[in-house]
Write a structure and sequence with these properties.
81% of the residues lie in helices and 0% in strands. By secondary structure, it is mostly helical.
Length: 215
Amino acid sequence: MSFWEYVGNRHAQLLADTYQHASAVFQCMVVATLLGVAIGVATYRSEWAGNLAVTSTATILTIPSLALIGLLIPITGLGVAPTVTALTLYGLLPIVRNSIVGLRGVDASLVDAATGIGMSRAARLFRVELPLAWPPILTGIRVSTQMLMGIAAIAAYASGPGLGNEIFRGISSLGSANALNQVLAGTLGIIVLALLFDAVYVLIGRLTIPRGIRA
């Protein structure tokens, strides 16, 4: 059976796995973004706190994904829970680091001007600092998403959702008629999803970042 015949025969399952993969990455990225930006906001004013935040999230990223999921299984069980936990933790580093870099890079004179016109600290953060720090934050989100697309495939080890199931089925049945087709279908699906997500981020950047800041 050719690859395209395999895709035609299995298109319903492949579409379901693709949707689950995209949904898992998207939801984990939302959580990782909220946590990462919050950590950046809480630590960017202090050198040691910022370094601690970056070092801690970097340490998490050094743990092999298969090992982390394996360690989470006794705690969270199989399925969605270890997948979501692992992906969220892995997605933190680029967002935390870029949030801190972006917030520290805001022109101090602009912050002083906002203070001079009576803005509170919260108003300065949400109306001046975070909007100006948004380009590097968005870059961190893009990097995290690309990483999680690949790492999410490992979730099949813990009976997690997504295209990793297709890849693992192919690997476990190497030598059979459709083993290569299964691995190829899962891999190409992840690549296509990564490209589509990145295209959406490019569009978001064009819509939310003023041309002068992009330049």
